[in-house]
Every structure is written in C-alpha cells, then in structure tokens.
Fold this protein.
Amino acid sequence: MIVVDATGLVLGRLASVTAKNLLAGEEIKIVNAEKALVTGGKDSIFIEYGQTRDRGHKERGPYFPRRPEMILKRTVRGMLPYKMRRGRDAFSRLRIYVGIPRELKGMPLEQPAAAKMRTASNNKYIELGALSRRLGANF
C-alpha cells in the first residue's frame, strides 16, 4: 500500500503517476487532496471547470463533482480504462481523502518526484480546495 501526500503536487501529473501504479497492481491512498495544485491562469481554470460543472447535473447528463477528493478521483478515472475489467479493478484500489484520516496518521507519506511542480517561480496555479469552494463545495 502506498500513501501519497498530494500537498504541492500538480493534479494531472499526480493522476498520471497514480493511474500507472494502480494498473501495476498497487493499492494507493492519497491524503490532503485539497492541497493538490491545478496549473494555469486562475480565470481560465475557473471558467473551464465551471463550464464542465454546468454541462450536466446529477439526474441527467455528465456529472462532474465539486468536492476536491472527488475531482481528483475523476481525474484519475479518466486515465484508466475504467469501462474494462482491468480498469475497474485498478480504480477500486484507489482511496482519496481530504486531510489525513486517523488510521493513516504516523504512516510514511510519499511524494512522487514526477508529480512535483517543476519551477518555483511559476505563479500560475490554484489549490484544488480553492477551486472546489469556487464550484460550491463545503468541506
């Protein structure tokens, strides 16, 4: 079992590394999902995710989540063949949490080097928690 701390990691890169490990048979738990980073300009991020959210709703159409752990889970799902048996099995081995749950406190946390922000001078990013609050989530 791998426990990953999402603090300061880029959302897409984290999802890519996670999907590869899930397909390899690993069980992965991601903590601090609200602290993952979405790169790009703030305005364009809010517009893009807002349009994705408004496109459908829960009863009909594509449902897009508001909560940070569910957005991260949806991103990982998009990188898995989730309609096939192999992808469904891999997706079932993934758990994502806001904060650190009691049962995972004290465990060693990993941060994949491939998922880290490459340049510290780039100010064009927003935390997933701030994006979720903007979409209307209460967590």
Observations:
- The first strand starts at residue 2 and ends at 5.
- Residues 42-55 form the longest helix (14 residues).
- The chain has a mean pLDDT of 93.
